[in-house]
TrEMBL record:
Domain of life: Eukaryota
Organism from which the protein derives: Oryza brachyantha (malo sina)
Record's protein name: Sulfotransferase
Residue span relative to the full protein: 54 to 358 of 360
Sulfotransferase domain: residues covered: 39-298
Family, as annotated: Belongs to the sulfotransferase 1 family.
Record has Transferase as a keyword: yes
Gene behind this protein: LOC107305090
Length: 305
């Protein structure tokens, strides 16, 4: 397979996607063996698009009848320890753990839609929620993340190198535009199965996103009171400040290969941080590339002005 080395990591190109080498066995195992249940909810995203937030929201929404919000596991646990990363679990040989999860299961992945097996796409009516973020903020967030979790790889501090890779479509789980477009198109074709949300809209009106997710997964809020009270409580529980502070004194979350500090998941949590990292020309170049890729699809980037 075509190979790229970034820092100390190897990425392999398989099915038109760049995969971190460590995850590829998990992806192959999912393609061969994963059997979804119709009650499953898959949280899909390109990395650094708000996955952690979506994990917290979906988990809080779907478990609200099981755990009172004032004693919720999210008060003690990192969202990544509440919602499993499916390829990571499969790569770590924990298929049986996934199989043993009670229904309804919530699982996350970064796999492009085109790489999902037929068991998910064709033969199941499980639900998929995709969160999309302005690619310029994704790129900035990814760069900070790499530097945080791999501080030993000094050359990663060159933002421009990652920027170039992104523009070439050579970053993990990418090209970014293919990852987004696959789910966007699926959400148009199968609106009851694929919900396409945007990080920027979620920031602007989190309560509406919470209600949309609840409705989509089949556990809508009933009554005005529940709406006002519980929706607000979930918005607060999963807010950036709340999650960041709750996690401040904890040791973080287990990644596939190492433990990640909580601070690597909660950095700024805003739209438009790219303005502090890119020149106008750099931003314009990404926008132009992406607009070209999105042409005719009906999809546009939503960017902080
Ligand atoms: P920044 O690095 O721009 O701050 P992912 O979870 O997909 O890895 O994405 C990480 C990004 O989401 C980070 O962006 C992080 O700060 C932001 N984030 C995490 N939790 C959030 C929350 N509750 N609300 C808004 N943004 C959040």
């Amino acid at each position: 397979l075509p190979t790229k080395v970034y820092g100390k990591r190897r990425f392999l190109k398989y099915q038109a996607t760049w995969w971190p080498e460590v995850f590829l066995p998990g992806v192959l195992a999912i393609q061969r063996r994963f059997q979804p249940r119709s009650s499953d909810v898959l949280l899909a995203s390109y990395p650094k698009s708000g996955t952690t937030w979506m994990k917290a929201l979906a988990f809080a929404i779907m478990s609200r009848k099981v755990y009172p919000l004032e004693e919720h596991p999210l008060l003690r646990l990192n969202p990544h320890d509440c919602v499993v990363h499916l390829p990571g679990a499969y790569a770590a040989g924990k298929e049986s753990v996934v199989e043993a999860l009670p229904s309804p299961r919530i699982m996350a992945l970064h796999m492009p839609y085109s790489t999902l097996p037929d068991s998910v796409v064709v033969n199941s009516d499980c639900k998929i929620i995709y969160v999309c973020r302005d690619p310029k903020d994704v790129l900035v967030s990814l760069w900070h993340y790499y530097n945080k979790v791999r501080p030993d790889e000094a050359h990663l501090s060159q933002f421009h190198d990652l920027y170039e890779s992104f523009c070439q479509g050579d970053t993990i789980f990418g090209p970014w535009w293919d990852n987004v477009l696959g789910y966007f198109r699926a959400s148009l074709d199968m609106p009851t199965r694929v919900l396409f949300l945007r990080y920027e809209d979620m920031l602007e009106d989190t309560a509406s996103a919470v209600m949309a997710i609840a409705h989509f997964v089949g556990c809508p809020f009933s009554g005005e009171e529940e709406r006002a009270k519980v929706v607000e409580a979930i918005v607060k529980l999963c807010s950036f400040d709340e999650l960041k502070n709750l996690n401040t004194n904890k040791s973080g979350s287990h990644g596939l290969l190492r433990k990640h500090a909580s601070s690597s998941y909660f950095r700024k949590g805003v739209a438009g941080d790219w303005m502090d990292h890119m020149t106008e020309e750099m931003a314009h170049r990404i926008d132009t590339i992406v607009q070209g890729k999105f042409q005719g699809s009906g999809l546009n980037i939503k960017s902080a002005a």
